[in-house]
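User: Hey, quick favor. My workstation is busy. Could you predict this chain's structure for me?
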Amino acid sequence: MAGGKTMHIATVLALVAHPVLTRAQITVPDVPASVDLSVVSGESLQLDFTAPLTDGGAAVQSYLAEWDTDPGTQEIQTITTSTYAGANEVQTITTTAKDSNEIQYVTTSAPLVREIQTITTTASAGNTLGGTFSLQFDTSATGGSLQYSGEISADAAAYGSRYSVQSVLEAMPNIGEGGIHNVTRSAADAESGYTWSITFAPRMGNVPELV
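Assistant: No problem, here it is.
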């Protein structure tokens, strides 16, 4: 019995010498100190460190080392520098030219058309035409003059003789030689009347009417 009592006292002393810590007294230990990490291969690395200075009230049983195999996306930062170069230069170009009046020419043309006039002599039915007649030609409106022809026979030829219609008309000062292109005469009617067609030369232009 005496031996049993002695063991019991020793056990108590042991408990006193090593008090039991409650969970509330244990804290998180410090991180390991003097950590040295090196990569050995694509699947292993070497980690050297010393124990933390404070174990939080309980001996550290193990350490956890994590290795993230996914490095993620490297961040790329762009640095843009700029400088103020001042206002843009503006240049003005002025062109000049001598003032010149524009001259335009308008040309008109028309096809050549000779003017034709007719002279017709007639008599009442049953009568025979005879005698002579004369004509007047007035070009005073265009700077010419009023002229009268010589006597023209009622049956005068169209051209060829000095008494033909063409010769008598070209003898007038405001027509002149070459003023008549040609003259034709129709056949006589029942009363011996004729119709003369007088074609003026182009130089005569727009001629007034023979009366």
